[in-house]
Each structure stands twice: as structure tokens, then as C-alpha cells.
Amino acid sequence: MTTLDLIKAALKEDMPSGDVTTESLAMKPKMGEALLKAKEDLVLSGANAFEETILFMEPQARVKWQFNEGDLVYKGQNICSIEGDLLQVLKAERVALNFLGRLSGIATLTRKFVKEVEGTQTKILDTRKTTPLLRELEKRAVQHGGGLNHRFNLSDAILVKDNHITLMGGISKAVERIRQYSKLPLEVEASNLEQVRECVSLNVERILLDNMDNATLTMALELIPKTIRTEASGNMSLTRVKSVAQLGVDFISVGALTHSAPTADVSLLFDWGT
């Protein structure tokens, strides 16, 4: 599904039978300017979706951006201006702001996590815990915040998790079966030190250290050779992530980047010229 498809669906959801309030005012086109303003410090993401939403309702609108996606915007700054028929812009306002607020919120939270691990070798990753159908936009927002994308979908990479392990009766059996049918690199989830040792013996490419406390992570890393990449996951908060990074893991995956990011506070201010 393209961004335009998402926008059309979102506008249909918001206006299944038109905007009965604005249309009942029975006004002629009202030319003017609107300003998109940050009401808190944020990292900008979703500019393209915002602009496409505006232009879908008002094709003649001119949108002038003061910032690029990935830029830090401070509270009170104008992010962009819109010139055109403000009645049509008004119809698009909520959907456009929903896209930009949601995506800027993800980028902003990601930037906070990335800042926490500065000075270490660790990279911050997202997960597949995304809003249905918004994964491409949300994972791009993670990039705007300075994070990296884990696998985009189940077709992208092999990750053997606890259910696969249980299904096959153990890590070794799962890995051996997969290697019969695929040449893709293997990442395997380990939830204890015994499983870590098993993954090392199988020489998998990457081990996901799942829901381990820092003491257990330290012991796990001592067992894993440098030739195998490491990823820590589970209960990764802003207050904890730095201490985990300092242990020396290659990656920390954080589901909260997309499933728990607060919406960035932005507003669209109209100059009706009255």
C-alpha cells in the first residue's frame, strides 16, 4: 500500500460523507496562509505524508518547509507554511496532523534512545511492533531519529524465536532444519545461558539475548565470540539502555520506538484574514 493509498483511506475514514460542518457554511474558496507550528521540541518526520494529504484536498496549495525530515525542531518554531484555499486545508488538517504527529513522535523517541548510547558501539534497532499498514512510514521515522531498521517483514530475514524452538524441539533441530532449506544468515533468540552456548556451538550469525538482566547479559557476552553479532532485547527503557550498551552488545532492539512513542504536539494555525 502506497502513502497515497493510506492518505485516501484515512481521509475516507475522517470524511465518509464529506465535512458536513465546513460544507454547511456554504462559503466560496477562502485563500490564505496556515502555519504548522511545533508545540514541543521534536524530530521532524512524516513531512511527505503531511504534504500529500494537504495536496490531495487542495492541489493548488503551496507548501514551504523550513526544516527537513530528521531535523530537530524547537518548541514555538514554524515547521512549514501553506498557501491556498484554507477551507480545503481545514478538511485535511486532522489527517495531516495525525500522520506528522505520530511519525515525529517516533523519530523524537528514537533520537532519545540513540543519544543514550552515544560513545558506545551499540546501534538502536526497531522491531515489527508497528501500526498495521504504517510500517514503512514508522520505520522511516526511526531512521529520521537516527535508529536502524531490523527486518522489515517476515520475508526479509530469518529469526528463530521461542515458538520456532518449541515447535522443533530445540534450537539445534530448528537451525539444522532451516539450513537444509535456506542459505540466509541465521539469528536465533536465546533466553538463558544454556541456549547461548548452543547458539555458539552452531555458529549462528547473530544471537538475540532476550529479556536478560545486565548480570546475565555480561555472562552471555563472555561466551559469545566476536565473530557472532549480539542483540539485546526486552524491557529496554531510556533509563536502562545506556547500561546495556556499555556491556558491549552490537545492537539493542526497542519495540517501544513504534508501539509506545507519544504523539508529537504540533498544530496548524490559520490566518483567515478577517
Automatic annotation (TrEMBL):
UniProt domain Quinolinate phosphoribosyl transferase C-terminal: residue ranges: 106-268
Enzyme superclass (EC): transferase
Amino acids binding substrate: 94, 127-129, 151, 161, 189, 210, 233-235, 254-256
A single cellular component GO annotation: cytoplasm
Domain of life: Bacteria
GO MF annotation list: nicotinate-nucleotide diphosphorylase (carboxylating) activity
Catalytic activity: nicotinate beta-D-ribonucleotide + CO2 + diphosphate = quinolinate + 5-phospho-alpha-D-ribose 1-diphosphate + 2 H(+)
Keyword field contains Nucleotide-binding: no
Keywords of this entry: Glycosyltransferase, Pyridine nucleotide biosynthesis, Transferase
EC number: 2.4.2.19
Keyword set includes Transferase: yes
Pathway: Cofactor biosynthesis; NAD(+) biosynthesis; nicotinate D-ribonucleotide from quinolinate: step 1/1
GO process annotations (BP): NAD+ biosynthetic process; quinolinate catabolic process
Residue span(s) of domain Quinolinate phosphoribosyl transferase N-terminal: 19-104
InterPro entries: Aldolase_TIM, NadC, NadC/ModD, Nicotinate_pribotase-like_C, Quinolinate_PRibosylTase_N_sf, Quinolinate_PRibosylTrfase_C, Quinolinate_PRibosylTrfase_N
Subunit architecture: Hexamer formed by 3 homodimers.
Function comment: Involved in the catabolism of quinolinic acid (QA).
Record protein name field: Probable nicotinate-nucleotide pyrophosphorylase [carboxylating]
Organism this protein belongs to: Pseudobdellovibrio exovorus JSS
